[in-house]
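Hi all, a correction to my earlier message: I attached the wrong file for Pyruvate phosphate dikinase AMP/ATP-binding domain-containing protein. Here's the right sequence:
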Amino acid sequence: MDSNGLPHGHCYEVDVMSVVLLDKAIELSSFGGKAFQLGSAVRSGLPVPHGYAISYDLVNQIVNGNKNAFKEIDLIIGNLTLPFAVRSSAIDEDGLMSSYAGIYKTILGINDATGLFSAINEIACSGQATQAIAYRKRLGLTAPSQVAVIIQQMVCSELSGVIFTRNPLTGMDERMIEACWGLGESIVSGRITPDRYTVNRGATSIEIFTGRQETAIYPAKEGGTKEVKLDSQGINNACLLENHIRQLDHLATRCEQIFGKDLDIEWAFSDNRLYLLQCRKITTRGGISH
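and the right structure:
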């Protein structure tokens, strides 16, 4: 195996560096902003799920049906534990000063190669969607969107959400956390009103607003995700404990040391372990939008 977890000596009509471990995704022009940022997080020792960055050129070859490009992806499938999460990483997406949150697709719960290639195609096509084109025009970008892809082991989370290192509603120097049971898709889709926590630095003062959560989203055994009804305990109780909040405050501090102030951090807990899913600059004040 080489340093990217690929067999030595394989040679196809595609660039071997089209597939790299996340910590080696150092070329923005090939792997996009999100992969570049996650790579920086991995190199800094942050708890990012294991995964690979797939270059825009290789994604384009997959979309065009290049069988040798398929072989490149086949080589890494065995190095990841099912299920997979497949995320967009557009070349100009999710830089620290601009965010395409919600514009491009993320596909969760992929459990076989067929689903993986379908997800890559779907994410590549999302760059040409009306919503993406309109958003790019508002940013003054007229060139076609170039979408690279990230393939990661999916975090089958019991708790998920976001933490803002500065309150995006008031601008105050305090953490704001939004949290839900299960996958963060519940927050993104607007299905629930998440629990909200206002926390000082160091997490010695915590103010809790319990949201309205009647359902949660979890991975489905057959692939994809499923929405399930919560029991009375899940409906009536805030989902985070003090220990979770302290861990999130510590993660926020580490991210600030690496990426600077005013961050919007997506996180998940699985088996009591905290994972960083994404980190970007806060791009909204006066309202939270994901």
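Sorry for the mix-up. The first strand starts at residue 19 and ends at 21.
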